[in-house]
Structure formats: structure tokens, C-alpha cells
Amino acid sequence: MDPLAPVRLTTAYFILFCIIVHLYTAFNLVLFPESAGSTTVAAPINFFGSTGLAGMAYLLVALTALFAMRVPYPYGVLMLLPQQALLIMATIGIVEAVWLGHFADGVPRPRAFIAQDHCELPLMCFFHAGVVIMRASLSSRLGMGLFYHPLEKVKL
Amino acid sequence: MGGESSYYFTMALTAVGTFVLAAFAFVVGFNNRITEAFNVGKAAKEQAEENKKDVTRVGDALQREISVLSAKFEIMARDYHVMEVDMASKVATLMTLGERTSQNLIAAKQEILRAVDGTSKQS
User: Fold this and answer.
1) Best of A2, A86, A92 to disrupt the B interface by mutation (most B CBs within 10 Å)?
2) Does the first or last residue of chain B, that is N or C, have fewer Cβ atoms within 10 Å of its Cβ?
3) What are φ and ψ of residue A11, in 5° steps?
4) Is B120 in contact with B47 (CB distance < 8 Å)?
5) Do residues A77 and A132 make contact, with C-beta atoms less than 8 angstroms apart?
6) How many whole angstroms separate alpha carbon B110 and alpha carbon B119?
7) Alpha-carbon radius of gyration of chain B
8) Are the beta carbons of A104 and B24 separated by less than 8 Å?
9) Could you say which DSSP state residue A37 is in?
10) Are the beta carbons of A142 and B40 separated by less than 8 Å?
11) How many CB atoms lie within 10 A of CB B20?
12) What is the pTM of this model?
């Protein structure tokens, strides 16, 4: 068995967690447009122009990342980048809200309050970046090949 | 929140962030590939050197065996000329020695073939 399989599995679980969060966000944005006022999705909605489009983008990005789990280097890493871009974008929106001292819907709050309220997503963005680098390092090892060997047991 | 400058700032920062991350990830990946390819090549070269040593060792042993047998033949031939002993027994002895030499040669050849076979399997 590959000695680095547990590390690969851990990165896969983290990416899966991000995918679930993004899928939830996608459905929330598409089905409930009133969630557009939230600070975590402010920057992506601003970027894509509408709540529906942003929701579809979240869905697409999550599905791309889901398929990336089974795609070998370098395409698998490339397919994780849209999710990372969306996380960076959302993080910038949160940082902006903290900087301006009010939530995206205009409710003023102390900076520390907003930073505490939305601390998860920037952390997710940071760790996702680490995971992307780890997966690039793990999947680029020889033997992983252009496609995973069909007899390899650990794929995630 | 928002505005034109904010929009472009977000877009640019996202693009730069993603690009930097991608660049770093691929530098790590390609470095891995190059290092591993180098290690595999180095291991193959070391194995080839080992196999070459094996073949040389068998070849040397064969050379020594042939030298010993040649010396024995020379002694037998000199005895035949000098001592003028029973010719039939000397011929028989020479034939036995010749047979043994050929057997030794066949054994040595098989050993070399085994070594070469091992080389091809490992490479």
C-alpha cells in the first residue's frame, strides 16, 4: 500500500468538505435568491452579476472539484483551481466587509465582530490552497501516471 | 458594498492569487516528476553496473578454469613425449580431461546466460 495514502485521503476529505459547502451554497443561491445579501457570497455575486449565475457557478465549480478527485496530475490539480478561485473571491469579499466595518447588506458592526462571524471561509480558503499544493505534490509522483492504475486500491 | 473599483480589485486579486497558487503547485509537481525520474534512472544505472560486475566475475572464473585445464593438457602432453608410457591410457586420460573441459565450459556458459537473463529481467 502507498505509505502516503492516508495523507491523500485527508486531502480528499477536506476537498469533499469544501465541495459540500459549495453545493449547499449553490442550491441556496438558486432556490432562495434572498440569501444573496450574505457577506460570504457578496463578492462572487458581484463578479457574476446575478444570484442565479453565481449559484450555477458554485454548482459547476463544486462538480468540477468532485470530478478532479479521480483525475490524475496535472489535470486533477487544474480542476481544483476554480474552487480555489471562488474561495479567494469570497474571502476578498469578507476581508472587504471587515475593512469597511459593515456586512454586505449594509449592517454596521465592529470589525472584530464581522471577522469572527465569517472566520471559517478565509480559513477554508487558506487550507484549500495548501491541499491543492499537497495534491499536486502527491499526484505528480511517478506511478500515478497520466491515469491511475486500475489495480491501485487508494484513489481518493 | 461593491462599486467599479472593488469589482476590478476583487477580480484581479482572485486571478493573481489563483495564478500564484497554480504556479507554486505545478512547480512542486514538476520538481517531483523530475526528481523521481532522476532517481529511477540512477537506480537502473546502478543495477546495470551490478549485472555487469556479475558477468565479469563469471567470465574471469571461466578464464581461470581454461588456464588450469590448458596447463594440465600441457603436462599430459609432455609426460607422453618424455616418459613414453602406455599410450592408450594417456589418450584415455586426455579424453576424460577434454570431456570435463567441455562440461565446465557448458556450465560456465549457462551461468553467464543466467546472469544476462537476470539483467534483462531487471532492466
Assistant:
1) A92
2) C
3) -65, -40
4) no
5) yes
6) 14
7) 35
8) no
9) G
10) yes
11) 11
12) 0.69
Q: Which of B9, B18, B37 sits opposite A85 (nearest CB)?
A: B18
Asked whether B105 and B48 are in contact (CB, 8 A), the reply is no
Record the cell numbers describing residue B106, joined without a space: 557448458
Each residue's pLDDT, cut to its tens digit, for chain A (156 residues) gives 667 778 888 899 999 999 999 999 999 999 998 998 899 999 999 999 999 999 999 999 999 999 998 888 888 899 999 999 999 999 999 999 999 999 999 999 999 999 999 999 999 999 999 999 998 888 887 555 444 444 444 443
CB atoms within 10 A of CB B93: 14
User: How far is Cα B23 from Cα A78, in angstroms, rounded to an integer?
Assistant: 11
Burial code (b: 16+ CB inside 10 Å, e: under 16) for B72-81 equals eeeeeeeebe
**CA A133/CA A121 separation, integer angstroms:** 18
Residue of chain A nearest B4, judged by CA positions:
A46
Q: Which of A125, A132, A108, A127 is nearest to A40 (CA)?
A: A125
Q: Is A98 on the interface with B (CB under 8 A)?
A: no
Contact A81 B22 (CB under 8 A): yes
Distances in whole angstroms, Cα of residue A99 to Cα of each of A102, A112, B31, B63, B82: 8, 10, 39, 86, 114
Cα–Cα distance measured from residue A47 to residue A85, given in angstroms and rounded to the nearest whole number: 12
